[in-house]
Amino acid sequence: MNGSGDTGYNLRSIFFLYSGKLSGNFMTITRELSYNLSGSVTNMGLGINGTTIRLYDYEYRSGSLVKRFLVEQSTNQKGGFNFDVRKGVYCIEVVPGDNTRFARQSLETIKVTSNTTFSIVLKAGFILSGMIEDHKGNPVGSAELLVFGIEPHVLRVAQEVAPDGSYSISLPEGRYYVCVYYKTRGAQIAARKALPDKPFLCPVMEVVELYKDLKKNFELPAMLNFQGVATNSAGHPVSGVRATIQSSEKLDGVFAGQLPLSVSCTTGKDGKFEAGLRIGSYTVKLEPPTDSHLAEKQFGSMQLDQDRTRTYSLDPGHQLSGKILFKKMPVVGAKVTMLGVKSESSQWTDEDGHYCFSLAGGSYEMQISSQPHPLGQEAVPELAPWLGNVILDKDTDYTVEMDEGLLVAGRVLDPSREPRAGVLLSVYPAKGGTADSALPARMPLAVGITGSDGAYEFRLRPDSYKLVLNNQPSTAHVIHVGDSGKDKDLTVEDVCVVTFEIASEDEIPIPNCLISYERYRIGDSDASLSPELIEPTTTGDDGKCTITVSGGIYSVHFQPPLESEFEARHLRQLSVIKDMTRRVRLSRKSSVPSVE
What we know:
Elements: E1 15-16, E2 27-28, E3 35-43, E4 46-47, E5 52-61, E6 64-74, E7 80-85, E8 88-95, E9 105-112, E10 116-121, E11 126-133, E12 143-151, E13 156-160, E14 166-171, E15 174-182, E16 200-201, E17 204-210, E18 214-215, E19 218-219, E20 224-231, E21 242-247, E22 262-266, E23 272-277, E24 280-287, E25 297-304, E26 308-313, E27 318-326, E28 329-330, E29 335-339, E30 344-348, E31 354-359, E32 362-369, E33 386-392, E34 396-397, E35 400-401, E36 406-413, E37 424-429, E38 446-449, E39 455-460, E40 463-469, E41 477-481, E42 486-487, E43 490-491, E44 495-504, E45 514-520, E46 529-538, E47 544-550, E48 552-559, E49 569-576, E50 580-586
Parallel strand pairs: 2-38, 3-10, 11-18, 11-19, 16-23, 20-26, 27-34, 27-35, 36-42, 36-43, 44-50
Antiparallel strand pairs: 1-6, 3-4, 3-7, 5-6, 5-8, 8-9, 11-14, 12-13, 12-15, 15-17, 20-23, 21-22, 21-24, 24-25, 27-28, 27-31, 29-30, 29-32, 32-33, 36-39, 37-38, 37-40, 40-41, 44-47, 45-46, 45-48, 48-49
């Protein structure tokens, strides 16, 4: 294996659709050290040597699951590949060689609960190529493409744009969304003259029908110019401020959570930053250098309908810095999150275990999480999540010594004592040791899934916690962790496995159908839904997806991509009292969609 991990929204880290309320922790928990995630890549029965296999897992960040690149390897002479991974959720991207016409593929949300093997058959694709240009016809090299399959394939891949604005990618026959968005890569710095000086937040989303080789140029629209100036309270410009401009627009549709809605830039010596934006509402977050003694600050509700310049004044702040240690040794890559009354800020420790924030004075909750790398081949201590409170009224050095977590292990079983595999589990602190009807709007301390034997495993400090299944507050179980840890089998009497099979009226499977569902309140005349929002999921190429929910009555919505030929459908009341399979047919848009 080769390669190294990185995080962020780039070629090796694109958003996966997930609209839960969790953020900030890696998929974890493992009873066995590792499993084999392996397979073979073939064509016409022959193994394909030299195909690049990229492996990702997912981490929770800002309310979404974000792909995190782990490692890549090339297939061997027989087309084989093999990764040793821990229990968790992964994604594989298949990148054939540039000298072939084989089409790109991706395998999404692979739940590894035991040794897992895939057979991947490469098929010839069609070449989509062309140029990325601005509205004046100038090439744009600071862009990337995100490609989403509409029908008939599930596909989520990213493609670099060359510094001269050209691109080329081989895809299977089908219909696709192609999104063009701003992205500057380190390799392009030397070619900066070929790039626009100004970043842009105006992603282009077009539908492409691909049934033969196609040359297509994507043109960025004319954009409004937004310029900001960061100053201190005395009105002097501040350089080195990281400005993140976030669109307030809420998008709908299957791929909404995967589209880039923010762009970042850094102020120069004059304190200025600028970006090309479309008409809309935005928030601007400014993060000054940590040695500036200024506090990071977010400014919201900026309405942009014309070229605009705004000056932002940063208030005095305090530096909070320190190290995260375990047995006096630095913890690398620990995530440190500071939660204030109206703010949340996170960063990862460096190779020295160091972190540093510039924050306004006040009281903060500090949360630290650190987990071994999913590909770790050696048993390493799993550190317990750390929680504490910090009052910041001056520059503060705060070093935290983390503890090796106590083992909290057990199994999730159904009433017949059969294991429930692949169930998402989240751990929250429990105030007073009782399970409330709703969890606080905060990130979990740890997240994982059950294995093929229903087993789960966490490492925690002695305290009381809420163990929640599938992010449904009603399933919260309180566990008390003593000095010797805890073993607890959870008999889940009301959690059911529901398999949906989505197809057309002539039995053609419908992929990429977004299935969202909420608990239905019986007896409400206005048919209102409870606030217990459950994460949506999408169907695969076979039109199927499986979910686990607690027993009850649900309102379920089936939404194909907006450019699909099929209508959405809504089931107002679906009773779930046991494991079940439900076949749902969607009508074509020429007919009237049915509602039950």
